[in-house]
Structure formats: structure tokens, C-alpha cells
Amino acid sequence: MHLRPVQFVDTPVGRDGQVARLAGGMLWFAAYEVIDAGQRRTVSIADFDTHFAQDETAMRLHRAVIAARAPLILGERVLRLDQPHVAGILNVTPDSFSDGGALEDDPVAAANAGFDMVAKGASVIDLGGESTRPGAQLVWEGDEVKRVVPVVERLVKSGAIVSLDTRKAAVMEAGLAAGAHLINDVSALLWDDRALAVVAKADCPVILMHSPDPAKGPHGGSGYGDVLVEVFDWLEARIAAVVAAGVDRARIIADPGIGFGKGLAENLALLNGLAMFHGLGCPIMLGASRKRMIGALSNEAPVGERLGGSLALALKGAEAGVQLLRVHDVAETVQALRVWRGCKDQALVGR
Question: Do 278 and 215 have their domain in common?
Fold first, then answer.
């Protein structure tokens, strides 16, 4: 069984017993789409207990969906997760699809780019030293360490929250020693045999992303029956394994992996079903900025001309209760979210 929150409302005022709050955030919903044995039906929140009070799976999922997410403790910083945050993408690679390697071999310029994103409203800087685009070459861990550590040190010294985007245990160790606050692994700690132990020992937050065969690379896969259900189930099993290995569940963030081993129709299905992932009981990260799917839906717009689509997907995530939005265009996304937040706040105080 799976539960997807649907029928979102502007305000819970006057709707006691008819709506539920999504993950302790700014959204309320009035019903679930219940997906069970391939069948789908809608059950209102008002009738949920009547239908499912004795169903342990349904009640477990419901509790996970509505539970407030614990704030992330990141050194001396605390990141509350009751509203969406922007994670600014900072690449220090020679073959990044988004910036063409402009910041490689220049840690000062890279750090300055990170400072600029923080000034524009990014809550987190997601720093990567290895491209994960299709066809990208594997980077030796020593080179990756040389690329990211000097930038981590400068960003942390300034007070920025730094997420290190890597799948290599040695890079994780070096980055965490330099002050990085959390790990973002596109392989969900499956590519490197030591990665899970490193994260567990460090007791740091970790982002686990779905890809079909992460031990081989992020872009494999042979198709899906029901992509929404299959990605949810994969992440649920992976989260359970990571928790069993000693990582606090409250420090795990789930990412459905838009664009990784998925075609256009599958990416769209995941985006339309994003709210279901709250049933994992973890915060959600959405990384859809400048992705290929935007070009596919807009006359093959090149990477540099995908701002409109990126903003549309960021707001799609916000409307589904996503807590972290990983983006290239920080200022524009922050502005869009502020307007979105204004609409939400007004709905709560009156019309």
C-alpha cells in the first residue's frame, strides 16, 4: 500500500477533522490517493480512520506523512524544515553541464560564487567535484579531494552550510574533516563500500538519491512498471538499511533522482506524485534544475535557457511540500519562493 496526499487546501481554518498537515509544514490536504495492489482510489481525511484504523501499514504511512520533520543540526547552525529551502549548486568540475567548468582550479572564485549564493538566499551550498551527467568520466578521488577541500574550508569559515556532493568515501572523509556539514550521494551510499560506515561514524546528515543501479553508475536502468511506487519502495528499503547500519533516521533526506535513469514520462510521473514520498518519514530533496526534461518540453531549449522551466519545477516541489530544492539559479528561485510563501501566509490570515 502507498498513500499520496491529494486535494490540497489553502488553509485549515474551519476544517477541523477534514484536513491533515503535511510533514509539519505549510501545506494541508483533504484526502489520500490510496494505491493498493495496483488499484487507486481516493479516501478523504475525514473518513481515513473509519477505513484504515486497523490497517497497520496505512496508519504507519499516515503518521509518517503528517509528522513534523526534525530540524537539521549542522554544527552551530540549525536548519528548520517547516518550509522549503534552496540549496545552491556549486560545481568545481571541468565538465559540468551547467557551467562548463568555469570554477575548476580556482578555489577562491568558487568560494566567492558560494558566498554570492548565500547572499542571494541559499540556505545550503551543494558542492561537487565530479560531474554526474550522462557519459561523464570517473574522477580519481585524490583529484576530487583537491578540487573540493579548499572550497569547503573557505565556505565553512564564512558560516555557510556546505553539502558535499560525492559518492566516494575518501572524499567524504576529507570534506567532513574540512568542515562540510552533510553528504549528498547520488548512489545512496552504494557506490563505495566504505561510504555508509563513514557517514555513520561522522553522524552527519546524508541525502540518499534513487538511481536504478547505483553500484554501476547513476544513469542505468531498464524501465519501470509503476515508477512512483518502485522509486518509493527502493528508497524505503535503502533508508531502512542505512538506519540499520547506525545512521539516525532524523538525519536522512530522500531524493527521487529526477533525470537519473529515467525518461521524460517517468520524471513527470515522479513530479506529479512527489507528495507520496513524505510517507518515507524523511525530508525530501528535489533536484530538477536545468534538467534535460525541461529542454524536451520546450523546443530543445539549451541548458542556459531553462530558467523558466527550472522555476516551474521548483514551485511544483514547493507545492508538494519538498523541504530542499537543489538549484542553479538561486536568486530567481528564492524570489519565486518568497512570492509563493506570501500567498500561503495570506491564506492563513484571511482572504
Answer: yes
